[in-house]
């Protein structure tokens, strides 16, 4: 047990080690003393392995010691009587999330060694990867909202740099800027909610110690905020806090930035879409659940946002042909189901689905990376017949597809838990919509599999060999996807199991028929266009951007015409006056006498006019 004490007492080093690795790689490259890719791999993987060992050790202690909690704080900033601290907060939720994020990150780094080997930005890539890990681990282990917001912003910055890694590509640059700007909307909302919560605590309770919203006292803080605010103010506070989670987890109406984020390297997509950046929004829901759960309206808002996102993104994935876009829409939809689980079920159910989705989605993205390496293309129309040449890759993909569809393995366990909880709590409308989403999920995922691995080969494959560093991470992820099927709890309702299986298997059959007999089917223009264009969210965004540009141009012209015109008029008048007075400086005393008499006459005339006006208005009255 002393060994596990060592892990938990020093868990804060999991935040620092990736930071030191990043600094070491960056300085080595900057001063041109580090150019070996093997050395970079050694530094980065050593840091990731260190974090993995400590995450496992800490997780074991939280499992063996029920209710284990450890908080470590150091003073950071003092403003008058307000003290802000930095440190680490390690409980069951943070232990689970940290282990999940560390495992995925470690696997992605192993995969990246081969995938990014020929890229000219190889060293920069691993520098940014360690920056991202530092930010994400710091967010997970934050003891209060003050520190979490700092790392929340760092996650946004590092993801911006990774999405725009190939910055010379205009599409990647645009996608990075779009992700950054749309996340700033959520960050502004989150910061506003934090400030409002702190103001409520301070003004009503004079509780200076809770100004940074520490998670160790979140139950009491939530009760205090709820007790001293009206329903309207409380809901407003929760919605502002929720705005951060909506943007980070790409939920409606800020859901379409995640689709464009596919322009980054595929390992980055696997990292962002599984257990890190987009999961940060769901993790925020877990941390603030004691606050949100005090009002049913807030929980309903969370559930409705999640179900709307899941419907929109599931339908949008049906006709997509870009491999990474299909998986990106799938991520959006599954995150929506996590929101639904938190809003209608519990944190535990949401955490289980986050876990099963993380491993399956990371695996599918890495499979897509291998396919792109083989085909030099990511359009499913150019793929086909890969199962004959790469059966192992096909079977791994099939495991991920089956899991995410909810037929077998880890995804089956988490999805039946959500469905069972929805029926148990009387959310029958949500349960029906959940089944509809399950149908669409199974349909587009099996369509994804059929197009890539079944049928006939459409493109001659030149790069026919897959490196073991590409396949090994896939086997590890496949193991986790299968293993969680036996570990996670399951619903005991046989009827719900059969309903879920019938829906998804029916979707598999429909997908098979549509794929193999596609010539007999005709597109319905309106429905097809809506799905292909993702409900036109991109067009809507562009419309608002254009309106903003027009408004900005109007303000610019107003500023140029009015303000700059006023300044120009004043300066011109001053120059004219100065010129006139400079001409009057002749040195001739007679001229100065004339000027003086003229000024006296003007002054006397002015006084006389004012006097006459006063007399006139006095008589009128």
Write up this protein:
The protein has 621 residues and is mainly alpha-helical. The protein is 76% helix and 3% strand. The protein contains 25 helices and 2 strands. The chain has helices spanning 2-9, 13-30, 37-64, 92-115, 122-140, 145-163, 170-205, 218-227, 231-248, 257-260, 266-274, 277-287, 289-292, 296-317, 323-344, 347-375, 386-389, 391-405, 409-424, 428-453, 468-487, 494-516, 525-532, 537-584, 589-620; strands at 70-79, 82-90. Strands 1-2 form a two-stranded antiparallel sheet. The longest helix is centred in the C-terminal third of the chain and has 48 residues, at 537-584. The chain is globular. The model has no long low-confidence stretch (mean pLDDT 87).
SSE topology sketch:
Elements: H1 2-9, H2 13-30, H3 37-64, E1 70-79, E2 82-90, H4 92-115, H5 122-140, H6 145-163, H7 170-205, H8 218-227, H9 231-248, H10 257-260, H11 266-274, H12 277-287, H13 289-292, H14 296-317, H15 323-344, H16 347-375, H17 386-389, H18 391-405, H19 409-424, H20 428-453, H21 468-487, H22 494-516, H23 525-532, H24 537-584, H25 589-620
Antiparallel strand pairs: 1-2
What can be said about this structure in brief?
The chain is mainly alpha-helical and 621 residues long. Helix content is 76%, strand content 3%.
């Amino acid at each position: 047990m002393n060994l596990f004490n060592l892990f938990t007492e020093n868990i804060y080093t999991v935040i620092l080690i990736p930071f030191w690795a990043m600094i070491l790689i960056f300085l080595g490259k900057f001063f041109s003393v580090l150019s070996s890719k093997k050395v970079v791999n050694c530094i980065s993987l050593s840091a990731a392995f260190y974090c993995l060992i400590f995450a496992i050790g800490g997780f074991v202690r939280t499992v063996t010691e029920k209710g284990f909690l450890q908080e470590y704080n150091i003073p950071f900033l003092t403003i008058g009587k307000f003290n802000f601290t930095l440190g680490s907060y390690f409980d069951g939720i943070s232990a689970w999330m940290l282990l999940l994020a560390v495992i995925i990150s470690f696997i992605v780094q192993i995969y990246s060694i081969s995938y990014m080997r020929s890229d000219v930005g190889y060293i920069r890539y691993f520098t940014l990867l360690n920056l991202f890990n530092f930010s994400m681990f710091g967010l997970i282990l934050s003891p209060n909202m003050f520190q979490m917001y700092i790392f929340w912003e760092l996650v946004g910055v590092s993801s911006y740099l990774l999405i725009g890694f190939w910055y010379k590509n205009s599409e990647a640059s645009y996608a990075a800027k779009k992700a950054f700007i749309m996340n700033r909307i959520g960050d502004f909302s989150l910061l506003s909610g934090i400030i409002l919560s702190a103001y409520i605590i301070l003004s009503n309770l004079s509780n200076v110690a809770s100004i940074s919203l520490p998670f160790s006292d979140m139950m009491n803080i939530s009760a205090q905020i709820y007790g001293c605010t009206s329903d309207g103010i409380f809901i407003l506070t929760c919605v502002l806090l929720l705005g951060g989670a909506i943007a980070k987890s790409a939920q409606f109406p800020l859901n379409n930035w995640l689709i464009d984020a596919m322009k980054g390297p595929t390992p980055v997509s696997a990292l962002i879409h599984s257990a890190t950046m987009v999961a940060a929004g769901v993790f925020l829901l877990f941390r603030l659940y004691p606050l949100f759960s005090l009002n049913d309206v807030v929980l309903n808002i969370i559930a409705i946002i999640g179900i709307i996102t899941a419907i929109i993104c599931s339908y949008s994935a049906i006709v997509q042909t870009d491999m990474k876009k299909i998986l990106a829409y799938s991520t959006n939809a599954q995150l929506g189901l996590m929101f639904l689980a938190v809003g209608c079920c519990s944190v535990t159910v949401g955490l289980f689905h986050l876990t099963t989705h993380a491993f399956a989605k990371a695996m599918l993205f890495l499979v897509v990376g291998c396919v792109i390496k083989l085909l030099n293309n990511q359009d499913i129309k150019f793929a086909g017949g890969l199962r004959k040449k790469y059966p192992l890759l096909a079977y791994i993909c099939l495991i991920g597809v089956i899991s995410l569809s909810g037929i077998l393995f880890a995804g089956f366990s988490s999805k039946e838990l959500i469905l069972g909880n929805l029926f148990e709590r009387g959310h029958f409308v949500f349960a029906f919509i959940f089944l509809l989403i399950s149908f669409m999920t199974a349909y587009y995922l099996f369509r994804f599999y059929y197009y890539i691995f079944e049928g006939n080969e459409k493109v001659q494959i030149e790069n026919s060999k897959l490196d073991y560093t590409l396949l090994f991470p896939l086997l590890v992820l496949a193991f986790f996807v299968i293993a969680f099927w036996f570990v996670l709890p399951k619903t005991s309702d046989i009827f719900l199991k059969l309903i879920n299986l019938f829906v998804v298997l029916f979707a598999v059959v429909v997908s098979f028929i549509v794929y193999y007999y596609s010539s007999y089917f005709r597109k319905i223009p309106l429905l097809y266009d809506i799905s292909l264009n993702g409900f036109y969210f991109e067009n809507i965004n562009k419309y608002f951007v254009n309106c903003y540009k027009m408004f900005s141009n109007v303000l610019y012209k107003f500023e140029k015409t009015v303000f700059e015109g006023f300044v120009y008029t004043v300066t011109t008048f001053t120059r004219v006056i100065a010129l006139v007075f400079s001409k009057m400086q002749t040195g001739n005393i007679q001229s100065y006498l004339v000027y003086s008499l003229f000024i006296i006459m003007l002054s006397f005339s002015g006084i006389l006019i004012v006097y006459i006006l006063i007399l006139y208005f006095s008589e009128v009255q």
